Amino acid sequence: MFLDTVINKKINNTPPRDSNLKSVAKTVSWRVIGTLDTIMISYFITGDTSMAFSIGSVEVVTKMVLYYFHERAWAYSKIRR
């Protein structure tokens, strides 16, 4: 990845852009990790598996949407520079 960045800058003299698909893939993979963390913390606090999964299932949807827009804002800001 580092070499791709260096080569692209030398050839095109423009920074590489992240695609929408890459942002979606990063969003999903990060949410899997984040949701497992939320479920574990919820379980340790409540001691209730059902409650932990309930909290994790609500959190996964909202944070995926928020992260996607956060990622696109960062990608957009790179283009504007």
Please describe what this structure looks like.
- It is a single chain.
- By secondary structure, the protein is an all-alpha fold.
- The chain is 86% helix and 0% strand.
- It has helices at residues 2-12, 20-46, 49-80.
- Helix 2 (20-46) packs antiparallel against helix 3.
- The radius of gyration is 18 Å and the shape is elongated.
- The two termini are 21 Å apart.
Distance between the termini: 21 Å
How many separate domains?
A: 1
Instruction: Estimate what percentage of residues fall within beta strands.
Output: under 5%
Classification by helices and strands = mainly alpha
Radius of gyration: 18 Å
Number of helices: 3
Order of H and E elements:
HHH
> What percent of the residues sit in helical stretches (DSSP H or I)?
over 70%
Unreliable segments of 5+ consecutive residues: none
Overall average pLDDT: 82
Shape, principal axes of CA atoms: elongated
* Beta strand count: 0
State the major sheet: none
